[in-house]
């Protein structure tokens, strides 16, 4: 997720799309440039899956796209054939793979991060479990199926990554890691627990198969130029009962303004539909 630095530094230095997050902030309206370190073949594969090729970065054996989404080599070798979820004019998308073997409880652990991150993780888990889905989460001291770890990275191209994660495997397991930015420009010197909770909640959404709600126009939450990434031939399934206007409060919007954003009514419909 990305955060808008311009908006949030004034608050205390802010869920957004420089994740996969899910999360980053926008420091200004500068266009995001492509990384020269990523080959043309990899960029082509990323585009074929329906992801933006703006500011792609190599992270170990994976690639960071859309600000907070980590695509592995396995992701890049898969063809996108599955339909999406769609909510309102800004659409809620799911990935080809989802978590399987439901009902199921996924364990989550936090490693080598300040206490406030552990508290926020527990809060995010509680928010999901309160929805009474067939997919539940449980915090464990170590070795979780989803492990929350830290990294330190300053702003780049007008945005700062708040957190990042990936999508479920073809075997039906959740993505195994959430990376949270410990740089002071991401959350300040005294991170707000509710804000951290919302970012972790967003990144957990990616781990279980959700894409950004404003996938069709990430300028909706991030500002800057209009970015329509297309459907990549994977279709869309509209969820009955959702509105026809823009869904401004979704927990899976690409960018954040630093607020504590949780599930809105349409998010709950989408989660209940899948899980």
UniProtKB/TrEMBL annotation:
Domain of life: Bacteria
Name of protein: Dual-action HEIGH metallo-peptidase
Organism: Mucilaginibacter pocheonensis
């Amino acid at each position: 997720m990305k955060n808008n630095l311009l908006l949030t530094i004034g608050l205390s230095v802010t869920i957004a799309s420089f994740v996969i997050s899910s999360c980053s902030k926008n420091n200004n309206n500068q266009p995001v440039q492509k990384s020269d370190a990523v080959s043309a073949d990899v960029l082509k594969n990323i585009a074929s899956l329906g992801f933006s090729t703006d500011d792609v970065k190599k992270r170990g054996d994976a690639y960071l796209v859309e600000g907070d989404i980590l695509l592995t080599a396995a992701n890049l070798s898969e063809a996108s054939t599955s339909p999406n979820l769609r909510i309102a004019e800004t659409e809620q998308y799911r990935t080809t793979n989802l978590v399987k073997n439901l009902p199921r409880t996924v364990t989550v652990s936090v490693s080598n991060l300040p206490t406030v991150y552990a508290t926020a993780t527990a809060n995010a888990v509680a928010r999901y479990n309160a929805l009474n889905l067939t997919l539940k989460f449980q915090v464990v001291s170590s070795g979780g199926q989803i492990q929350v770890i830290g990294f330190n990275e300053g702003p780049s191209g007008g945005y700062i990554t708040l957190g990042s994660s990936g999508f479920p495997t073809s075997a039906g397991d959740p993505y195994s890691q959430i990376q949270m930015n410990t740089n002071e420009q991401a959350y300040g010197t005294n991170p707000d627990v509710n804000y951290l909770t919302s970012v972790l909640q967003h990144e957990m959404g990616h781990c279980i198969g959700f894409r950004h709600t404003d996938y069709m126009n990430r300028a909706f939450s991030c500002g800057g130029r209009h970015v329509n990434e297309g459907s990549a031939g994977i279709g869309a399934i509209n969820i009955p009962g959702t509105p026809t206007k823009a869904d401004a409060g979704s927990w899976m919007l690409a960018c954040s303004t630093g607020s504590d954003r949780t599930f809105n009514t349409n998010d709950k419909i989408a989660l209940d539909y899948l899980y």
